[in-house]
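Quick one, probably user error.
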């Protein structure tokens, strides 16, 4: 039976944190290991420019760091194609052609566009690239004729717009592109150490690379149940972000014990965090070992990227030949 192709990407805007690991990256690894999918995962460096166009100096290092984290989490270049968006110039060509057929109101009604403009008030996002990034995203996806895209519920509008663009192209020219299906992922609600969404911009993240004293300090600073002010106060683990992490990094039997002790004030938040810190250190140990290996073998990482670029480019060239023929712009002059 033919494998179903899936595609997803991440922007290289900084270190990956545990929210990225459990919210997306671990799902990528699971899909790769499922055996039913042909996986394409890409570094969305052009997408990083839509909001960080004035700060490009760190992108190159971020790309390497991110791919190291991907490999360390378990992505296997023998089973997944890992590539850099900007190294496949066909993405830019297909983006340009799709902008010709995408109605402007489709972009202006995008809820994420409005939300990000409201949130990122420190940046001027009144640029065409930011408004049009869903079209570039559509080009990324349909270039590989992806069956599905793993997403959280907040990204559903993006996939629906991609489906609309694919259908419009097929209607105007020729049936080339499948309408990709959203592959819904259950994203654990991992908040940052200050109780807000874990985000690099908030400086509240526990990074995949954090170890030792850095990790202990961050876990020790984590917000807990706001109503538990004193050691003798009973806690509510279901409302505590520390306990959410316990459910990921602490053995089930111990997690149940911690929950019971928290409710009866049998354990204090400080001791609870010490257990969690040790659990995260242990649970991340294999990833940390792989990170150390790849940091000492950067040429291997570059070779993996180059091989992925070659594989992705072969698919992209074939797709663009079909696109130009369908649009009758392959002039042969």
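Nope, works fine. Designed sequence:
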């Amino acid at each position: 039976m033919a494998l179903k192709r899936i595609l997803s990407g991440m922007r290289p805007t900084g270190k990956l944190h545990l929210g990225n690991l459990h919210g997306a990256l671990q799902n990528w690894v699971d899909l790769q290991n499922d055996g039913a999918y042909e996986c394409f995962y890409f570094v969305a460096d052009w997408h990083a420019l839509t909001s960080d166009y004035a700060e490009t100096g760190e992108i190159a290092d971020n790309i390497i760091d991110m791919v190291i984290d991907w490999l360390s989490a378990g992505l296997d270049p023998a089973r997944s194609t890992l590539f850099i968006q900007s190294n496949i110039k066909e993405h830019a060509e297909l983006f340009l052609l799709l902008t010709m057929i995408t109605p402007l109101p489709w972009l202006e009604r995008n809820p994420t566009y409005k939300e990000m403009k409201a949130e990122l008030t420190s940046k001027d996002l009144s640029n065409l690239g930011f408004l049009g990034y869903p079209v570039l995203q559509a080009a990324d996806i349909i270039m590989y004729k992806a069956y599905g895209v793993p997403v959280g519920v907040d990204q559903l509008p993006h996939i629906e717009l991609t489906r609309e663009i694919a259908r419009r192209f097929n209607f105007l020219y020729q049936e080339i592109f499948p309408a990709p299906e959203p592959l819904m992922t259950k994203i654990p609600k991992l908040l940052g150490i200050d109780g807000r969404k874990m985000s690099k911009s908030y400086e509240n993240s526990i990074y995949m690379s954090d170890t030792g004293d850095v990790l202990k300090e961050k876990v020790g600073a984590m917000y807990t149940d706001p109503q538990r002010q004193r050691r003798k106060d009973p806690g509510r683990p279901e409302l505590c972000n520390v306990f959410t992490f316990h459910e990921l990094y602490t053995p089930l039997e111990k997690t149940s014990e911690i929950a019971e002790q928290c409710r009866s004030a049998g354990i204090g938040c400080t001791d609870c965090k010490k257990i969690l810190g040790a659990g995260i250190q242990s649970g991340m140990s294999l990833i940390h070992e792989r990170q150390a290996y790849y940091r000492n073998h950067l040429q291997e990482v570059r070779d993996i990227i180059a091989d992925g670029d070659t594989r992705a480019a072969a698919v992209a060239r074939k797709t663009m030949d079909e696109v130009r023929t369908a649009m009758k712009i392959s002039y042969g002059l």
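The mean pLDDT is 92.
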